[in-house]
Write a structure and sequence with these properties.
The chain has about 700 residues and is of the alpha+beta class. Helices cover about 30% and strands about 30% of the residues. One of its GO terms (molecular function) is 5-oxoprolinase (ATP-hydrolyzing) activity.
Amino acid sequence: MDGGIACVADEVQSGTDWKVGVDIGGTFIDFCALEACSGRVASLKVLTTPEDPGAELMTGLSLLAEREGFDAAHMTRFVHGTTVGINTIIQRKGAQLALFTNAGFEDVIELARLRMPDMYSLFCSRPDPLISRDMVFGIPVRMRADGSESQAPDMAAVERAVAVAKANGAQGIIVSFLHSWRNAAQEASVKAMIGRLAPDLFVFSSAEVWPVIREYERSSTAILNGYVHPRVAGYLTALEERLKDRGVPARPMLTKSNGGLMNAAEGKRACVNMLLSGTASGVIGASWLARQAGEDKILTLDIGGTSADFALIIDGEPQFGTGELIGEFPLHIPSVSVSSIGVGGGSIASVDAQGVLRVGPESAGSTPGPACYGRGGEQPSVTDAMVVCGWLGHSEMAYGQLRIDTGLAHRVVGELAARLGRPVEQTAQAILDIAVSEMFVEVEKLASRAGVDLRDFTLMPFGGGGPMLGAFLARELGMKRVMAPRRPGVVSALGGLVADLRGDFIRTVFTPLSGASLFAIREAFEALAREGRDWLAAQGHDAAAELNLTCDMRYVGQSYEIEVVLLPEWLADGNAAAIAQAFHLTHEQLYDFHDPDGEIELVNVRLSAVGAGPKLSFPEVDAIDAPAIPTRRLRVYTGVSVETIDLHDRQVLVPGSTFHGPAVVVQEDTTFAIPAGTQARVDRHLNLLLTFTE
């Protein structure tokens, strides 16, 4: 990114125009700031402050002002990703909620789908619901599946339930009734009644959060939204006040789980949409970088302090889906498909009761952090193992904020080695091998689900820890290429900077596919299109909108649907045959068979409304092929023996620079560990490309 970014559109004629992307992770908050007038990009990492979320943001803006001449008064775009929502769920520190549902359906969230998280484990158990059973209230009310009312809500029962919920400490209430996807009137009337009885409680209805068929999916999504609402809303309110006090004129925008953006005002209500914002932003940033470099098949590897996240980019675009896990709970709104595992740079290594070495999921986080940070950490981590092996610790980290204490790393890993009765270097290597093997298993699952051959893909490691372990993982997976961006540590922040506005909308139609049913589908699409355009206007977008239409479809008798892309002209022309053919083709691609004579049902119509973000591009620099000159030599334990290898400074590597592994490349935001058997080359976009030669 040092070469700068050229602003193709939204150029400012005079003065300074700063556009800033920010992403908060478990250990660091990342900044990617673009000065649009000059095309200069500034990046930064600051340690998070879990005890005061948001304070690190102000610290980072101050550092940008000191180091880069950043002027908050001239910030015209501010995009923010945060982990407040997902951490609230993982730590179970959310709101005390009550659930109002139909009498006789009080067990809806405990029954769920009657599936165990791991059907092959004898010790597997389902997570405790976010709402305890004594806070679930059955209300005499019933809506028929066709949307007609069978029994009106018993408002006396509602009044009694509100009184009990308040007495038991409820902060908010979720209203979720049967068939509200068809007709939300009953939920709306009960919500209004609660508002009159208890104006101090917040209330969400399932149909307003995500009006989809299936009561468990609709209820659980609304519960997640309400569970994080107080903390997210409080955080965003404090964020707006801090930015205002700082003199920032830009309206804060938030990254969403679907890879798009929304404004902070909506984020306070639609909290569920930003639960996976950080991981999604990383994939969006990686997709943008992949398209710039002409890479069409990418496996992303985002390693932070607490986790490793994986995603596939195919034809330059991220993959989307539903059912992503938020902690222990599925999220049923569209989101960028990301698989995660609790192995990161801060993951702690330990010996269990059987004497087996384990890594993670417990993490040292940012406070106290790995022992080598010198901030009070007393347990060995993956980062400490990298230091002991010699891959890490040869330069300052996190833009000069951290100095690696190799002595502390050797001490804590040495204590673990003594318990195992092994040399300290071998113990450190074992920690790294376990971390890589756990990632290997998760990536293989991802590849199997997607039906792809990873040998056709390029690995893109990013995050502070991605380049440390990425090449070793690629080697184990049999991948041939690795592409590390110029600033891997701030790819998630870049993702927010280049993201589009994106809103997802859904209507359940539940009808057989036929020429006669196309009217209902066309009517639903038109309603969603109006909703999508109105949403974009509310976000402040007044330019052209891109409307993408899909349908959830299935053969009659199947339990679950597949998502099929539809063309608007098929609906306009009444072309049911084209829709059926698209479904058969998609089914064939996913399951390797289709039934040309099978009756087809349409369940949901989906629409995504996209408002294009700023058009940015990296300048290309002519490459001059020349061997890179190492800064110095250093000794590294490479897994078998201690070898003397080259150390390169990323700052002085130019397009066309080449060298061989094993080697270490240091830079302000990360360290790139390059194993033997690799050829490295810097491309015209300042990406560092590795090719395995053996």
